[in-house]
């Protein structure tokens, strides 16, 4: 679901009133981005407490026959509440991206092609396993 943001529905179900609520679509890095944004909101005073939820549902996009991805990708969720503290508990963030690596993890078929009927095959995530490992670990 892209619109409205799922965050707004969660805030409503939790009875949070009308807080700032938004989704971050950034794959593996999304929770880190959310945590850093939450820290910034608390430190600068625009929020006293921030709930950060990280949810990933990849089972629908994982080709179980693909040995490079099937053992890595799954479903998971986690949550933290970020609030004021007398101690520094969240350190500085090191930001970065590597657009030249865009082809090592990708989706086989664009959603637009699948939805329009141009292709019948359901999209799946693929990756170049060794390249991703070297990129992520070294």
Describe what is shown at a glance.
The chain is an alpha+beta fold and 138 residues long.
Strand content: 15-25%
CATH class of the largest domain: Alpha Beta
The chain-level structural class is alpha+beta
| Alpha-carbon Rg, integer | 18 Å
Order of helices and strands: HHEEEHEH
- Continuous helix count: 4
Q: What are the defining features of this structure?
A:
about 140 residues; alpha+beta; 2 domains; two-stranded antiparallel sheet; 4 helices
Describe this structure in words.
With 138 residues, this protein is α+β, with helices and mostly antiparallel strands. It folds into two domains: 1-60 and 73-96, Thiolase/Chalcone synthase (Peroxisomal Thiolase, Chain A, domain 1, 3-Layer(aba) Sandwich); 98-138, no CATH class. 28% of the residues lie in helices and 16% in strands. It is built from four helices and four strands; from the N terminus they run ααβββαβα. The chain has helices at 6-13, 30-44, 111-116, 129-137, and strands at residues 50-57, 75-82, 105-107, 125-127. The strands form two sheets. It has a two-stranded antiparallel sheet. The chain is globular and about 50 Å long. It starts with 5 loop residues before the first helix and ends with a helix. The mean pLDDT is 89.
